[in-house]
Specification:
disordered C terminus; 44 helices; single chain
Length: 992
């Protein structure tokens, strides 16, 4: 197998994906991915042509199926072997008989890696290595990225998914069993409770939950878990539980002491990430026991899978000193190793660079095992030189994300968000690290409301306000004692090297003011030049004096730190020094390699090398692979150097390059996230700005999610810097991302900022666009009256500008907003007006959407004949314009109209066609809605099992996205179990 083939990697444990090296490949349509999946699952064995045809189309292949399938194979060969010439023989997808086989190394497939690790775990356990077996299973399960073959159509996923999901579940049960054996019974409870609800007939999960609860001192809950599983088995299958859990039930009832753990718990292992959308489409996940349906107002009934966050930054391997302080903080917790019985707040204070964060992170790692609920971390950036401190609202939302709350379930107001956050922490033992807080007011909303958690706060200010109101314990750090400063240097530079030149070592410690940050920078320089005598390094530090006047209050220690910064800065290569100072104009929390390249006007490869140089010099921290951040003091120093050494023009050019990079890369993502939507006209970008390009919808969404904080910061910085064109265009191109991921608060924030910028600049085009964007955000926030008011203002502007196309778009959006508000007469009025303009201007795209929306309004009004006429005409126009997205929605609405008219067969046929369209373009939300409607008509047609299947599949999709309609599907399934199910009287609200 040559190197070319060896560079390929494939994934089926989640969406089907492939990479060559680090670059993800575009695998084409879902049907083409089915072909690849079949070949991957055969693991090098030939797959006959007939079997491939069955996997793609089932029992009714189209007439040209063989020709189409061979086209799929040809396209896959081009993707996997782009450099193979016309005469070259395929090396990856090879012909065997009338079929094909895939020739790749076994470890190039994530399924093979998973299965190998599972086998190794069994062998380790058989050999008595319980800890090693657990670690192998944690790693194996961490390779899953969602339900196997997620998103693939056709019979393949229906037959193979159940097998793969059984493999996942069996491995998960084995891992949970090992975790309990290792004394981690407290932390697995949070995983087992939702799993037993998802798989109520799975006796092994019940056994594990019973044992974990009993070992955690929760005997009554362990017995209740048994009763729940027994009830489900009797009701669904008419059988009693097996002998294993019956015996465990009897032993728990008798309080058998031999069930208790025999040794102290080991430190908590790193958690395995939950599979995204882990509930498979054909699972019984939706069919949880009726008692699991949440009561109204129950915060635990939010119906998202609880997460166990593990957000602590890495502990410093060269941590040294702070013995007294660690003893002091350790005394705050119970000495028996248990979690606290109250909320414990420890506030660590001290000047910048004194080591507050390092101490806090080290202590947090030391005690993390006492908090099975997980660890939350956030840098509040209270003293960020750009003034961009994290607001309490943003911090709470960040924690809600970490706790697994879907974005659309996060309420709008801060009080409601804080209440939800505290409800989720109630009864859980969670460690919370709030780094770099500005004041007590920034911290208070982030404190838990019930006992059992530890909160560690670091700040340059003495947070005395927390002492009086929250009972916080203050700890103020001073410079390291000389002996501990020596230990820190010895760990980094080497004890022998220090012992050889004790006077030079003492001088370095003195010149660094015994400040950990300064000592770390000097140590990095010494390690980079092992041949340099320490005396030479000490002399360089002594001769270097910089200036950070904006930061200091005349502190001699800080002056020495400035000298260290200056000395380390001057040791950089000229390109690295330039990049370092240009980082002083970047306002986001971190920066990627491509963004740094745009900032400096450099190719990515060159930028990466300079970032590596800065990281080695300890002037930059790579907090996540490929993402870098600056310490506050170094950010101040970078800002001062850029003002001192770069002209105002160069500073402005650097900022514009960076902001343009964010805008044009977001626009590239926009084309994948909302294909065929009217594009936002962009200003020309600087020549040195090289935006990213994407090949898949998922890549585009992932980039937007990763850069979300920077994108929001970029909008605000563009407004502040007078780059108004970027300030209103960037929220416009983020429209689809904010919509799909339901980041409504960020959407409102950025669109309003863009609106203010456009108005300040007198840009009527920008104002009109920003008004429409703000209206879309308001509509999705449920504030339809405000959305309608904004759209009317936008309509006035479009009329003033004489923009007929823009005016038509706003009129259509008004019709959609009125439809959301339930004001159907107004919805019809504005949709018909928009339709007339679209026809007048020849806008086929807008005409198709307007006809579909008009048909939807008519069907809600009970005007079914008019609805059918509009919808049938809409299909013709939409297909002529290639608008597959709205075509699928229109087919779904047609299915609803036929359902209401009692034409069940026609309704089912339209829903099936809608599903095929949704799946072809990857519209998962549309697929979920249509599956729900298909279940409704199946039930009315007297087919309850078919209805159950459709609803379960719909629930799997809605649960994947945290969609609120999941609750309605759960209620229908619960009623179906109770024999009282009936299809909803009204259709779900749809948007195009």
């Amino acid at each position: 197998m040559d190197h070319y083939v060896n560079s390929l990697r494939f994934a089926v444990l989640g969406p089907v994906r492939a990479w060559r090296g680090e670059r993800e490949l575009d695998l084409g349509s879902p049907q083409q991915k089915v072909v690849l999946a079949v070949l991957l699952l055969r693991r090098g064995r030939p797959v006959p042509l007939g079997e491939l045809l069955d996997a793609v189309w089932g029992e009714e292949p189209p007439a040209a199926a063989v020709s189409v399938l061979r086209t799929y194979v040809s396209r896959l060969r081009k993707v996997l072997e782009p450099d193979r010439g016309p005469a070259g023989r395929p090396r990856v997808v090879v012909s065997v008989g009338d079929g094909y086989a895939l020739r790749i190394p076994d470890d190039a497939l994530d399924l093979a890696v998973f299965q190998r690790r599972v086998v190794q775990a069994k062998q380790a356990r058989a050999a008595g290595d319980v800890s090693g077996a657990a670690e192998l299973l944690h790693t194996a399960l961490g390779g899953w990225r969602g339900a196997a073959l997620a998103g693939l159509p056709g019979p393949l996923s229906e037959t193979v998914c159940s097998w793969l999901d059984e493999e996942w579940l069996t491995a998960l049960e084995a891992r949970l069993d090992l975790d309990i054996a290792l004394g981690r019974h407290h932390e697995v409870i949070a995983e087992l409770i939702p799993l037993t609800g998802t798989y109520p007939l799975r006796e092994e999960l019940c056994r594990l939950l019973m044992l974990a609860l009993y070992r955690s001192g929760r005997q009554a809950e362990a017995l209740a878990a048994y009763r729940g599983t027994r009830g489900a088995l009797v009701k669904e299958l008419g059988i009693e539980p097996g002998a294993g859990i019956q015996e465990l039930h009897d032993r728990i009832l008798a309080a058998d002491p031999t069930l208790l753990p025999r040794r102290h718990p080991e430190p908590a292992a790193a958690p395995v990430p939950a599979r995204a959308g882990a509930v498979p489409a054909d699972d019984a996940a939706a069919d949880a026991p009726e008692s699991d349906v949440p009561e109204a107002g129950d915060p635990r009934g939010l119906r998202f899978e609880p997460a166990r966050p593990a957000q602590l930054p890495p502990d410093l391997p060269t941590f040294a000193g702070r013995r007294t302080e660690l003893d002091s903080t350790g005394a705050l917790l119970p000495q028996d190793g248990s979690p606290p019985s109250t909320v414990v707040v420890s506030a660590i204070g001290g000047m910048g660079g004194i080591g507050k964060s390092t101490l806090a992170v080290h202590w947090a790692h030391c005690v993390a095992g006492r908090f099975p609920g997980g660890q939350l971390y956030i840098n509040l950036r209270g003293f960020d030189p750009t003034g961009s401190a994290v607001t309490p609202d943003d911090a709470v939302r960040t924690f809600l994300d970490a706790l697994g709350v879907p974005p659309m379930r996060i309420p709008a107001g801060r009080d409601a968000q804080v209440a939800l956050y505290r409800s989720l922490l109630a009864g859980r033992k969670v460690l919370i690290l709030l780094d770099n807080a500005r004041d007590a007011e920034q911290v208070r909303p982030l404190l838990p409301g019930s006992p059992g958690c530890l909160v560690i706060v670091t700040s340059r200010n003495r947070l005395t306000g927390l002492v009086a109101s929250e009972g916080a314990h203050l700890l103020t750090l001073d410079q390291l004692p000389t002996a501990e400063a020596y230990d820190l240097l010895a760990l980094r530079v080497g004890a022998d090297r220090l012992a050889a030149e004790p006077e030079a070592a003492d001088e370095i410690i003195a010149r660094c003011g015994r400040l950990p940050l300064a000592l770390a920078i000097v140590a990095a320089h010494a390690c980079a030049h092992p041949a340099f005598p320490l005396r030479a390094i000490a002399d360089e530090v002594s001769e270097s004096h910089g200036s950070l006047d904006a930061f200091t209050g005349g502190d001699d220690i800080t002056t020495d730190v400035r000298a260290v910064f200056s000395w380390s800065y001057r040791a950089l290569s000229a390109p690295a020094a330039r990049l370092f100072r240009l980082l002083g104009v970047h306002v986001g929390p971190d920066i990627s390699v491509p963004a740094a390249g745009a900032l400096a006007g450099l190719p990515q490869r060159e930028a990466r090398g300079l970032l590596t140089e800065l990281t080695r010099a300890h002037l930059l921290t790579e907090h996540f692979p490929g993402r870098f951040t600056l310490h506050d003091l170094l950010r101040v120093y970078a800002a001062e150097r850029v003002r001192a050494e770069e002209t105002r023009e160069e500073q402005e050019l650097a900022l514009r390059r960076l902001l343009c990079w964010y805008l044009h890369t977001a626009d590239a993502a926009y084309a994948h996230i909302t294909p065929n939507r009217r594009r936002v006209p962009l200003e020309p970008r600087p020549e040195e700005c090289r935006p990213l390009r994407f090949t898949t919808h998922e890549q585009a969404l992932d980039w937007c999610e990763t850069e979300r904080s920077n994108l929001v910061a970029a909008v605000h910085e563009a407004e502040r810097a007078g780059q108004t064109g970027i300030a209103w265009r960037l929220p416009a191109v983020l429209w689809g991302f904010f919509y799909l991921r339901s980041h409504v608060l960020d959407w409102l924030d950025t669109s309003r900022t863009g609106l203010a910028a456009a108005r300040a600049a007198g840009s009527r085009e920008g104002e009109a666009r920003a008004l429409s964007d703000t209206a879309a955000a308001l509509r999705n926030a449920g504030r339809t009256d405000e959305a309608i008011a904004h759209l009317h203002k936008a309509l006035e502007l479009r009329q003033e500008l004489g923009d007929r196309e823009g005016r038509s778009s706003v009129i259509s959006n008004l019709g959609d907003a009125y439809l959301h508000a339930g004001r159907l007469d107004k919805a019809v009025e504005y949709t018909r007006r928009g339709l007339a303009v679209d026809r007048l201007t020849g806008d086929v795209w807008g005409e198709g959407i307007a006809l579909s929306n008009l048909g939807d309004a008519y069907q809600r009004m009970g005007r079914y004949d008019e609805a059918l006429g509009c919808l049938e005409r809409a299909l013709v126009v939409l297909r002529a314009g290639g608008n597959r997205w709205v075509e699928g929605v229109t087919l779904d609405i047609l299915g609803t109209v036929h359902h209401r008219l009692g034409r069940h067969g026609e309704s089912v046929e339209h829903y099936r066609r809608a599903l095929a369209t949704h799946r072809d373009i990857g519209n998962r939300w549309g697929e979920g809605h249509t599956l729900g409607h298909l279940g409704d008509v199946r039930l009315d047609a007297g087919e309850p099992e078919a209805a159950r299947t459709s609803w379960r599949q719909a629930l799997a999709i809605f649960a994947e996205f945290g969609h609120p309609d999941a609750e309605g599907i759960r209620e229908r399934l619960a009623r179906l179990r109770g024999g009282t199910a009936e299809a909803p009287a009204t259709a779900q609200r749809r948007t195009a």
